[in-house]
Design brief:
heterodimer, A: mainly alpha, B: mainly alpha, Rna Polymerase Sigma Factor, Chain: A, Arc Repressor Mutant, subunit A, 0% strand
Chain lengths: 82, 182
């Protein structure tokens, strides 16, 4: 049997991925109520999740542009297809 | 409908999008080409209820997923469930090895911060390949679980374990390299 913190960390992560069962929720939240470190971990995962959602919704794309040679190559391929 | 014009107007954007996902400019060029050709072949399916760019990006997402899937098959990238790396994060007595401290921050300020994104990117690069792939598909591409499982040929349980491992590792890495040790 895994130790409580190890198990709580898996349940914390899973709570982003699926609906936890009734028993899992009780197990997780009773542990969080007693354990400050796991509460911090839970908090940090929420921050991380928000950061990724933000990145997903505000496309931060690298500064780069298609090299001219690549453009020519693609144009050539399009011409063949037309 | 003019694919030459698409290249002119959206080529750079598609290229940047592909680089942000694949981190390889040659591969990104191939993806732009494949996307434009596929779009041209299927241009009758473009209904015009989304913008042309959104439609092209949608096609490109599929191309990128196909590419990742092929890559995984060819190189047989694996991450066995049997050896559990998460035990590294916990002591013998089961307590946290490196203690998480509660991050006091505004997520919005962070995802707009180039320095932070560099650190995050480096932390992601340190993940075992399969963890990184599924985590990126989940959190950056926003794919649903079913799609990710199909692409990687894994079960939902395996997916959740991989994502859990990735989160433990990223949390620790960001704590060390950005937020500071507790």
């Amino acid at each position: 049997m895994k130790h409580a913190c190890q198990q709580a960390s898996q349940l914390t992560s899973d709570s982003f991925e699926r609906k936890l069962s009734w028993l899992e929720r009780i197990r997780l939240y009773t542990h969080l109520a007693m354990c400050k470190l796991c509460r911090s971990y839970n908090h940090n995962l929420h921050i991380m999740h928000d950061i990724f959602s933000g990145m997903r919704n505000h496309e931060h794309l690298p500064k780069a542009s298609l090299p001219e040679t690549s453009k020519a190559q693609i144009l050539e391929a399009i011409k063949k297809e037309r | 409908m003019n694919p030459e014009l698409w290249l002119q107007e959206h080529g750079d954007y598609l290229f940047r999008y592909a680089i942000s996902r694949l981190h390889d400019s040659e591969l990104a060029t191939d993806m732009v080409q494949e996307t434009l050709l596929a779009a041209w072949r299927g241009h009758e399916r473009f209904k015009g209820n989304s913008s042309l760019r959104t439609w092209l990006v949608g096609i490109m997402k599929h191309k990128i997923i196909d590419h990742i899937r092929k890559e995984i098959r060819q190189r047989n990238i694996g991450d066995k469930l049997e050896n559990d790396p998460t035990s590294e994060y916990f002591s013998e007595d089961g307590s946290w090895q490196s203690k998480p401290s509660s991050w006091q921050t505004n997520p919005e300020a962070l995802y707009n911060n180039d320095e932070f994104r560099k650190v995050l990117h480096q932390c992601m690069q340190h993940l075992p390949e399969k963890q990184r792939i599924v985590f990126e598909m989940r959190e950056l591409l926003g794919d649903d679980s079913e799609q990710i499982c199909k692409t990687n040929d894994i079960t939902p349980t395996h997916l959740h374990v991989l994502i859990h491992r990735a989160r433990l590792s990223l949390q620790k890495c960001l704590q060390q390299h950005w937020f500071g040790e507790s």
